[in-house]
Amino acid sequence: MIENRPLILVTNDDGFQAPGIRNLINIMLELGDVVMVAPDQGRSGQGHAITVNNPLRHQVLKESPNLKEIAVNGTPVDCVKLALKQLLPKTPDLLVSGINHGGNSSVNILYSGTMAAVLEGCMENIPSVGFSLCDYAHDADFHSSAHFIREIATDVLSHGLPNGVCLNVNIPALPSEKIKGVLTTRQGQGRWEEEFDARLDPRGRPYYWIQGYFSGNVTEQGTDEWALANGYISVMPVTYDLTAHQMIESIGKIFNK
Hints:
Elements: E1 7-11, H1 19-29, E2 33-39, E3 58-64, E4 67-72, H2 76-87, E5 94-101, H3 108-111, H4 113-123, E6 128-133, H5 146-159, E7 165-171, E8 181-184, E9 190-200, E10 206-216, H6 224-229, E11 232-239, H7 248-255
Parallel strand pairs: 1-2, 1-5, 2-4, 5-6, 6-7, 8-11
Antiparallel strand pairs: 3-4, 7-11, 9-10
Helix pairs in contact: 1-5, 2-4
């Protein structure tokens, strides 16, 4: 690592070979020294899962003066924990996760391995940002959002983030000239409508493939869903504190004895 340059930890949940993380690495190399610690295969939808029943192993894939790439046989959160406790030479100045193939707006943050890695960094008081492009295609156009990602990461490096707060950045699948700008948002309302494709294996035992579609409320102005539907990049401040603070007093009237 080069002295006096920021150290940036890059991870994701799509695996180290995903086009999204390759683009994110290139953007971050413009801002500092990069260590990528990412899953050795796709780990989408695993949320904040950690590996406890099997050993974690890592493989150094590439090493140069300003870039080191490491693959781990674990979840995104495993990657962050192992990086911070064992693999990095010092605490990083910034953690970025993504660029995810597909959006992580609304309740998707609860399922997202991309954002779980960000929240893990946030719990360690490291400025942490998750980037997601609302396009599930393998050949999605990540270049159109590069300018915005660079600016957001630069601002976080310059100004930091409050302890306990990280950012969930979602980018509409639009050419850069059609993106209207960046909005700070709150979490919108949405849900997955799951369906299960029930089948029988050759021995007559049932098994299921989960599938379905996401339905978001795009009419409520100020939310991430509204911003994305109207051509804006959504930057949502997120905290790992799940307390419903506004309900403590009213719930206390029922249960406090």
